[in-house]
Amino acid sequence: MSGGALVRRRALLGTVVLVALVALAGLFSYFTRDGRTPSNHAATPSSSPSSAPSSAPASPAPSSGSAAVALPVPPDTRDPIAFGKAAAVALWSYDTRAYSQPELVAALHRWLTGEEKYADADSVERQVPSPLLWGRMADSGQFATATAAEAHFPESFTRALQADPGAIIQAYVYAVTVSGKQSIAWNGSPQGGAEDRSVTLAVQCRPDRPCVLVGVMPSVAP
């Protein structure tokens, strides 16, 4: 993509952010869209969080004897909160023993919206270790599993929608903040270590189709 085209794309995405996430404009002048509503008018999302944990599915065990982390498959849901939790787990999980870095990137691309003017693949790819780092991690058989314990619409996003419920019907993109835990392990250390993780995602949920990922916010919105 040329420099001029990239600037124009960022400008368009930034404009959408200002419309859908007015209160987050300074923080999210990056790229966002909104989410779904099953009716013929925009519904103001509830701020109630979802607390049921989500986790990545496991595939058959690799030669090392530990269950492998499967390549992530997007769920068939029209709920932006449920999709956001699944997407966060997908972004926090990997397995250098079971597949390559390009294979993981390709799998994550399948979570993205097909509407190119909204999709921010770069923000998703930045969540994946670089090919060089992946190779070093593979030398020790490093892998990570994750759970998403809680997800909600950021307060500023909810306030913006309450002030202008119709703003969401152009792109149908919600901001979803997810909190959870990532556990990392490697050959010879099956327990590894764990750390808390949080991320704010842009999730598109048009009324007539399942939710898809738009991108990853540069900062976490409370």
Question: What's a quick, concise take on this entry?
Answer:
By secondary structure, the protein is α+β, with helices and mostly antiparallel strands. The protein has helices at residues 3-20, 80-92, 101-109, 121-125, 131-139, 155-163; strands at residues 54-55, 58-59, 68-69, 94-95, 143-152, 173-186, 189-204, 212-216. Strands 1, 4, 5, 6, 7 and 8 form a six-stranded antiparallel β-sheet that branches. A two-stranded antiparallel ribbon has the order 2-3.
Characterization of the model:
The chain is α+β, with helices and mostly antiparallel strands and about 220 residues long. About 30% of the residues lie in helices and about 25% in strands. It has 6 helices and 8 strands; from the N terminus they run αβββαβαααβαβββ. The protein has helices at about 5-20, 80-90, 100-110, 120-125, 130-140, 155-165; strands at about 55, 60, 70, 95, 145-150, 175-185, 190-205, 210-215. Strands 1, 4, 5, 6, 7 and 8 form a 6-stranded antiparallel β-sheet that branches. The longest helix is centred in the N-terminal third of the chain and has 18 residues, at about 5-20. The radius of gyration is 18 Å and the shape is elongated. It starts with a helix and ends in a 6-residue tail after the last strand. The model is unreliable at about 10-50 and about 55-65 (pLDDT under 50).
